[in-house]
């Protein structure tokens, strides 16, 4: 699936993807995972799991523990896991790819990766492709001048709504007060999504993440939203 969708890019949303792609130097095993395993698992077609009960997308999966928990708990659901940070990709791949088998491991039937900007994927997906969307503890970009870099953005809402089936869930979690306010400010007035007030304790059926644990240890209070696609 092509990432070249800039012709349809929403006005006001920067084309450039901000945020880290690489941290400290990669180890040889990590280099092999990126070079050999990522291309094999890269998402190219929504038909990769045609017999699945649904198709979910996690945007910015971080270390991958949330994605892997979803796979374990919902084995009949297909998941596209999107992340650009190379160490995050390696963290997830280390759990599913045996060392030395980067080019031969059997592909998980229900998992594909999108190692690029998730916004590009959402623009390219067929209408009504997704049965659930996850955004767990995204980078808050807390400075006002950086608001346009946030994944939750007024200009992105029609793109997200188009990709989701009517009545399906968009789950968002954040521990940052600025982002929490931004989510309410952006989504509450929207006719495309509806949702109750956020929960202040992680709801049942929401796997924990390392970012949530760090937030709670630092004394920050996460909020958990379930937004429903209108219609």
Descriptors:
29% helix, 231 residues, globular, Rossmann fold, 2 domains, alpha/beta, single chain, 7-stranded mixed β-sheet
What would you say about this model in short?
The protein is of the alpha/beta class.
Structure description:
The protein is α/β, with parallel strands linked by helices. The protein has two domains: 88 residues, no CATH class; 106 residues, Rossmann fold. Helix content is 29%, strand content 18%. It contains seven helices and seven strands. It has a seven-stranded mixed beta sheet, sandwiched between helices. Strand 2, helix 3 and strand 3 form a beta-alpha-beta unit. The longest helix is centred in the first third of the chain and has 14 residues. The chain is globular and about 50 Å long.
Summarize the helices and strands and which ones pair or pack.
Blueprint: H1 28-41, E1 55-59, H2 65-73, E2 78-82, H3 86-96, E3 111-114, H4 118-124, E4 130-136, H5 157-163, E5 164-174, H6 177-187, E6 193-195, H7 210-217, E7 223-229
List the uncertain runs: none
Helical percentage: 25-40%
Stated plainly, the CATH topology of the largest domain is called Rossmann fold
Name of the CATH class of the largest domain: Alpha Beta
CATH superfamily of the largest domain: Vaccinia Virus protein VP39
Number of domains: 2
- Gap from first CA to last CA: 28 Å
Task: Tell me the structural class.
Answer: alpha/beta
CATH architecture grouping of the largest domain: 3-Layer(aba) Sandwich
Order of helices and strands: HEHEHEHEHEHEHE
- Overall pLDDT confidence: 91
Oligomeric form? single chain
